Amino acid sequence: MDLTLHQMEIFAAVARTRSFTRAADELVLSQPVVSRTIGEMERKLRTPLFVRTTRSVDLTEAGVEFLGVATHVLTSYRRGLDRFAGYQAGERRQITVGVLPSIAAVVLPTVLSGYLEAYPGVQVRLADGTNAEILDLLRDGTADLAITEVGPASADFAVDPFLDDPFVAVLPPGHPLAGPSTLTWADLAAEPFIEFSPDSSIRRLADLGLAQAGVLPLRHLETRTVATAGGMIAAGLGVSAMPELVLPLLAATPVITRPLAEPVITRRIAVHRRADEPCPLAVRRLVERLLA
């Protein structure tokens, strides 16, 4: 079946206004054209889309389902045209960047300082969250790019790695393991281990380090945020492992850190972009500064 964008716009207008006449007025079309278009769509789809009475026009069950399809198609089409217009103009008024909190706090300030000085007409909006959350923002078009860990979900995007972030052990003040200059993951096995929630970008790699070391530490506490984990560690409730770049978020927390080896676990940070869409010039300029 071949349906045009114009037909979908007419269908969406009728669904929104619940009236062939009001939809025709809104679209500056004649009412017979609107009625004929809906009839043609129903023949192609082989199902009624509306229940018509003398007093009302209501969506059928199939009409409700098709409205979701039409809304998605029209939204993607308009968003794509907006992105292309920005690409042709060479600038965009606003760029949305999905980013891990640690990267937003530690890496981006310096990069954005130079970028916004060079391109003052661009407004950058940061949307921080977990790895899955920010990739979802990129996937649905809310974000123009995502700065996050390279992981299994990265296969859906164009990926440019630019930073390796090694894991370190995080210990309470005065902890016996603070003596050696470097610790192994096995050293953490006998300690209460404060882990991150499964949706955290840290959890997958911490689990990998422990698994490769063949150890299973005591797990009593779980949190989603670095600040909460730092507070728990400082209070002597356990130890943990975190990427080095999150440590500035613990600057006000009295904890001790040591490099972790056997194995060395590194979080690879990359710029993620939708591979099937043109990259506007303003977005491309920001990516170039990140990669540099």
Architecture overview:
This protein has about 290 residues and is α/β, with parallel strands linked by helices. The protein has 3 domains: about 80 residues, Orthogonal Bundle (Arc Repressor Mutant, subunit A), CATH 1.10.10; about 100 residues, 3-Layer(aba) Sandwich (D-Maltodextrin-Binding Protein, domain 2); about 100 residues, D-Maltodextrin-Binding Protein, domain 2, CATH 3.40.190.10. It is built from 10 helices and 12 strands. Strands 3, 4, 5, 6, 7, 10, 11 and 12 form an 8-stranded mixed β-sheet that branches. A two-stranded antiparallel sheet has the order 1-2. Strands 8-9 form a two-stranded parallel ribbon. Strand 1 and strand 2 form a beta hairpin. Helix 2 crosses helix 3. This is LysR family transcriptional regulator. InterPro entries: HTH-type_LysR_regulators, LysR_HTH_N, LysR_subst-bd, WH-like_DNA-bd_sf, WH_DNA-bd_sf. Belongs to the LysR transcriptional regulatory family. Keywords: DNA-binding, Transcription, Transcription regulation.
